[in-house]
Structures are given as structure tokens and as C-alpha cells.
């Protein structure tokens, strides 16, 4: 261990753990990033513009929603509102994860820009039996951020050469990833009720009302279900 910095060994171990845990999510994100880049290029965006969008937004669901509605001139107000509805869940995710991560308030404020569903879920799972350190978080989000920028930009460069990812089942990659993340939280009664209610409400809203309302509706229904299923003792 470095005598000048006795904590360097611990930082290294935490960073390696973060990279190890995020690796499956990063791999699953590659076909999705390539697909987004190809779709964005078909809408008229250059590879540089696609890379800039990924760097500034860094939210796959919101980026797909925006690019699907992309016209010239772009409907800025509509795109901003759709992005807000899709990403408002990050307020709840940040409130849940904030007390469990070892960072100052300023560090949390800055670093939570890079929060994704995957990094949040993996951190919450890690927090079940050990603290979530800044080194663990930084390694995860840096790897996923660089991966998303590279894959979306490459997708824009390759464009139509990619073909339809659905032929290879690549469009199911994120769905499979989220199923795995949910399974990692265990099978308690509260977890099962929360997931079932959230999924049912999101599916119904998507079917009868449409996107992006199903995202916020599913999240709010899941919160309500978890609160009611936990029982009075747990809530207090």
C-alpha cells in the first residue's frame, strides 16, 4: 500500500468493484447506443451532434423519446416536457440513494448528474450490506458514461450499415438487464408487490394513454404499493 496515501488501496478495491458490477450493464448498453446513434443519424443529426446530445443529456430513454419526435424545427417545449416526465424518477432515486452514499452534499449534487437506472440499482443493492463509497460510484458512472458516448457516436457514424437490431434480439437487451437488476433485490413480499403493481400500472397507462406518461405513473404506483405493503411498523 502507498505509505503516502494509506487509503489508496481501499479506493482501488472500491473502483474495481464498481467496474466489475457495471460491466454487464455497459455491455448491454452497446447495442442500444448503436441503435440510438443510427436513428439519430437518420433524423439528420451528425455524429458530433449525437455525441454532444449524449454528453449533455446522458439519458437513453429521454434521448429516444426526443429523437422519435424530432422534426425541423425541433419542438423544444414538447421535447423538454417529455424529458421531464421520463426523468422525474431521478428525484426519487436521488432521495433514496443520497443518505447511503459517502459523499459531501456538493459531491452528490455534481455526481448525480451521471446517475442512471443501472448505477442507482447496483448502488442500492450494494448498500444492503456495505457502504457505497465515492470511488465505487465514480468508477461505475465513468465507465457507463464513456461507453454511452462512444456507442451512440459510433452508431451515428455507421448509420444504416447496422440494420435492424431487433433481428438479433438486441432491442431486448435493456429489458433483460432490468429484469436481472430487479431480481437482485430479493423476493420479499414488499418487493414482489411493488414490482407487480408498478409494472401493471405502467403497462396499462402505456396501452391506454401512451408514452411518456407510463414512466411516472409506474413509479408513483410502485411507491404507493411499497408504502402500503410495508405495514404500519415499517412505515413508522
Automatic annotation (TrEMBL):
Keywords: Cell membrane, Membrane, Transmembrane, Transmembrane helix, Transport. It is a multi-pass membrane protein. InterPro entries: Brnchd-chn_aa_trnsp_permease. It is found in: Cell membrane. Signal peptide: none annotated. The keyword Membrane applies. The keyword Phosphoprotein does not apply. The chain crosses the membrane at residues 22-41, 50-70, 76-98, 135-162, 168-185, 192-209, 215-234. It comes from the Bacteria. GO terms for biological process: L-valine transmembrane transport. GO terms for cellular component: plasma membrane. Belongs to the AzlC family. This is AzlC family ABC transporter permease.
Amino acid at each position: 500500500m502507498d505509505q503516502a496515501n494509506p487509503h489508496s488501496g481501499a479506493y482501488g478495491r472500491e473502483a474495481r468493484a464498481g467496474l466489475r458490477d457495471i460491466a454487464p450493464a455497459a455491455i448491454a448498453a452497446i447495442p442500444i447506443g448503436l441503435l440510438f446513434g443510427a436513428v439519430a443519424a437518420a433524423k439528420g443529426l451528425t455524429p458530433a451532434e449525437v455525441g454532444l446530445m449524449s454528453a449533455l443529456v446522458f439519458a437513453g430513454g429521454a434521448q429516444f423519446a426526443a429523437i422519435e419526435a424530432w422534426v425541423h424545427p425541433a419542438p423544444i417545449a414538447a421535447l423538454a416536457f417529455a424529458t421531464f416526465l421520463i426523468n422525474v424518477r431521478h428525484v426519487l432515486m436521488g432521495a433514496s440513494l443520497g443518505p447511503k452514499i459517502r459523499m459531501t452534499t456538493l459531491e452528490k449534487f455534481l455526481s448525480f448528474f451521471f446517475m442512471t437506472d443501472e448505477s442507482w440499482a447496483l448502488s442500492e443493492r450494494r448498500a444492503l450490506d456495505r457502504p457505497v463509497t465515492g470511488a465505487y460510484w465514480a468508477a461505475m458512472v465513468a465507465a457507463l458514461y464513456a461507453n454511452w458516448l462512444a456507442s451512440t457516436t459510433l452508431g451515428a457514424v455507421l448509420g444504416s450499415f447496422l440494420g435492424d437490431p431487433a433481428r438479433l434480439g438486441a432491442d431486448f437487451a435493456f429489458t433483460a438487464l432490468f429484469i436481472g437488476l430487479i431480481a437482485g433485490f430479493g423476493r420479499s413480499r414488499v418487493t414482489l408487490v411493488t414490482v407487480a403493481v408498478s409494472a401493471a400500472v405502467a403497462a396499462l397507462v402505456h396501452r391506454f394513454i401512451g408514452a411518456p406518461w407510463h414512466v411516472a405513473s409506474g413509479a408513483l404506483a410502485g411507491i404507493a404499493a411499497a408504502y402500503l405493503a410495508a405495514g404500519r411498523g415499517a412505515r413508522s
